[in-house]
Amino acid sequence: MTQYMFTGFPGFIASKLFHALQEKSPSASFVFLVHPTQLTKARHMCSNPHIQLLPGDITKEHLGLSKNQLKQLQEEVTHVFHLAALYNLAVPKEAAHAVNVVGTEHVNRFVRSLNNLQRYVYFSTAYVSGDREGPVTEDELDCGQGFKNHYEWSKFEAEKKVAQLEGVPVTILRPGIVVGDSQTGETAKFDGPYFIMRFLDALRQWPIPYIGKGEAYFNMVPVDYIVEASLALAHSEKAVNQTFHLTSPSPPRVRELIHMISEELLGKKPALTAPFSLFEMIMKLPPIPRWLSVQKESLVYLSSHAEYDCRKARSILLAAGIDCPDVADYLPQIISFYKRHRDDHDKKIAVE
């Protein structure tokens, strides 16, 4: 019998993956390693008798589980999806290391103890590329790059440890910047391009500026594509011991994205170009990020010149009928959802 185990539930992507798997494999059972602080929320989201919620913590030895729990899992779990991580761009180094690096080491050790493992799916990020510029292929990892924040660095260190596993059927996934559902616009948090929306929203009574030259590509992907692609690769024999970019094959440049957002959100085109350095200066003023609910650490991604090659992923996904939609086709749904929920406190990013 197939048994899927998840870390990172009830997070947004983990929850979407679970519901999609439920539809595809109604007879499968599920085990969720849930941090104690998320247990109440997880219970509200689960009513299926084939679901087991286990309070645990990836930062602890044996994931904080008992010997009896571990013994049962070692015999029954067939697939592990490891999504638990600190995704905050402003995360302190110590916290990022404890959760993203040490936590992944603990999950790796657990995975190696499983007797019937068919696949270990690790969710990394395209931004393990750090400060690299130009083409980045799916088979590249350690190229001597530096990192823009502790989040990138810790995911890089964690991915290295997963890639070094021997005798384990691993699939490593590197999503781009994940946004809401391409059909409904639904999302859990307003980060990534939503920061652009919040910024332009605040300027709606003024001439709208482009942010610098805007020549960099902004690689965003809708969550439903991430879910479809992840499940297809998790069950493809061609994906064993491979790494894939779940990124857009044709991302917009930042200038083009700002133009599209401004027209859809505000009904008007940007009228001028302001220096990127001006926005950097403004975002360093503490009241501004808090007022906008925008992390100043996010601004650097508007000038990141990495270009993510996703041909290896697409060779498998296109054969399965899965393709990443174009931003222009789903941006109206993303912005419509944002408009309806822009004041929802739970969707705003906490900025200190």
Quick summary of this structure?
By secondary structure, the protein is of the alpha/beta class. Helix content is 38%, strand content 15%.
Which CATH architecture of the largest domain?
3-Layer(aba) Sandwich
Rg, Å, rounded: 20 Å
CATH level-4 homologous superfamily of the largest domain:
NAD(P)-binding Rossmann-like Domain
The best one-word shape is globular
* Major sheet characteristics: 7 strands, parallel
Q: Tell me what portion of residues adopts beta-strand conformation.
A: 15-25%
The helix fraction, in percent, is 25-40%
The helix/strand class is alpha/beta
Contiguous uncertain segments of 5+ residues: none
Query: What's the helix count?
Result: 12
Total strands: the figure is 13
Query: How many separate domains?
Result: 2
Query: What is the CATH class designation of the largest domain?
Result: Alpha Beta
The name CATH uses for the topology of the largest domain is Rossmann fold
What's the N-to-C terminus distance?
47 Å
Give the overall pLDDT as a whole number. 95
